[in-house]
Give the backbone structure.
Amino acid sequence: MGSADDDRHGDGSTDILRPHAEVQYAAELAALDACDDRERPPNWRLSPWAVVAYLMGGELADGTVVSPKYVGKRRLMEIAVATLATDRALLLLGVPGTAKTWVSEHLSAAISGNSTLLVQGTAGTTEETLRYGWNYARLLADGPSEAALVPSPIYRAMQTGAIARVEELTRMPSDVQDALVTALSEKSMPIPELDSEVAAARGFNLIATANDRDRGVNDLSSALRRRFNTVVLPLPESADEEIAIVAQRVNELGTALSLPAIAPAADEIRRIVTVFRELREGVTADGATSLKVPSGTLSTAEAISVVTNGLSLASHFGTGSLSADDVAAGVVGAVVRDPVHDGVAWREYLEGVVAERDGWGDFYEACRALD
């Protein structure tokens, strides 16, 4: 008879640090499937309407509450889902921290029930990573054969009619990027060594993410860009929207990391988001003071990281309530990436804005102590 430990692998159990979306939100996907009576494209688990409902959240007819996965304009998600129902691939474009990867994962989970067909783009990515490789022991023993072939995630997505994901497409060298052109235009992948090809099953498509702000970016060729429909994911429009995103993700991460429960942190979250937005935009919220803009992106994702780290400090080494001392180091570390340029921008902001702001004395002192 199996022990409790036997039940902790692969099915959303507590031993998994970060369950895949299709596992973590299996109940929501099942509820949407049960009430979804709209037409579904070939090999889609849900209709386009239900996919958007999964992303945006809401309450279903049976009372099931679907949590929002994306906080922003619904129309952007409708365009993204409609694109995947055609023969064009989807490119999610935006600066770091605009939820490109998050949206990509949840789109794949809702459409294919599998978000793991993923290629992570880097400067070292090769064509074989996008197409296929070889098991060299079998290749040397038996020569080229299907048994010796090692399919890429994109190859497997084509075979099964699923959604493949390519993260940080513009991180790859341009000649490697173009290995996708045939797959996206001809919906097939030639295998010259076997004098054959793999033809994409219905339902196959590809979601890529990219940003043009980081260093080391390689522009897409015009041939490849034509194969994509581009959806630009913007930074949150308002402070309240960004605060809601940070609070939601911090709560999810705190649960996943089993951080001890601590007092509500709404005030500190608002303060961090305010600092990041003002420095990102180069002006205070009231428009009265112009600011130097640091070199970092100061994205929503970085705000989430600062708050999560602060929660860990507060729960393990603090009072159990998130305070300015718990988040100050994270804020300064996120802002001051370049000690010269960013250091000047931060000190001017700290002395000219933070020091004069009512109710921010504890945050000012915590930041000053780090100098």
Summary: The chain has two domains: 4-232, 239-370. DSSP finds 17 helices and eleven strands in the chain.
